[in-house]
Amino acid sequence: MRKARARREAGSAYILVLLALVVLTILGLSLSFMTQTEMQIGANERVTTRVFYAADSAVNAALANVLVQRVYDPTTYTYKEPGTVPGLDFKSTVEVSAVIPLLDSPCNLCEINNAGTYMEKPTRKVNHGFSAVATRKSGTSTTPLAQESLSVMIEVEPWSVSNDAYKWINDPTQMAKIKF
């Protein structure tokens, strides 16, 4: 009787080992696919973060142009990524709209304005609005890898606005770029 039972059970360990190998293979493949997906998500996150910071840098550069040089004109910046593989040439292009004064009102709290009457104050409180759209492309491709848009409103007080600031307020294409 023992010999008959042993014959029936012969090869069962082989089947159990094969079943365990199939389960472990499926588990290994699923972990491999999960790791690959996580790496793609991380790479995409890195690209969008770079594009966001390119747009943020352009916003700060446009603000510096206004505060230091009184330049309100639209600007385009191109950042080439250092250390890229030849032929890929990753670069970010950032288009900054004109910096437009959206609200120009008296600066009531500025001590510098105490001379003169209420409407004759030389400095004012001015809210400027502008936007930056950053696009990252590879080589000569026209399809963007990533794109980020930032709209900014900055209040400067006290400020005396130059006449150059208002030349863009009647341009519908520049006004359409500012979206809040």
Structure characterization notes:
The chain has helices spanning 2-9, 12-69, 172-177, and strands at residues 75-80, 90-96, 100-106, 124-138, 146-159. The protein is an alpha+beta fold and 180 residues long. The chain has one domain (2-177).
Keywords:
alpha+beta; 5-stranded antiparallel sheet; 27% strand
Q: Counting H and I runs of at least 4 residues, what is the number of helices?
A: 3
Strand element count: 5
Question: Helix and strand succession?
Answer: HHEEEEEH
What percentage of amino acids are in beta strands? Answer: 25-35%
3D shape: elongated
What structural class is derived from the secondary structure elements? alpha+beta
**Please, how many domains?**
1
Q: What is the first-to-last residue Cα distance?
A: 86 Å
Radius of gyration: 31 Å
Biggest sheet features: 5 strands, antiparallel
Q: In terms of per-residue confidence, which ranges show pLDDT below 50 for 5 or more consecutive residues? A: none
What share of residues is helical?
Answer: 40-55%
Average pLDDT figure: 82
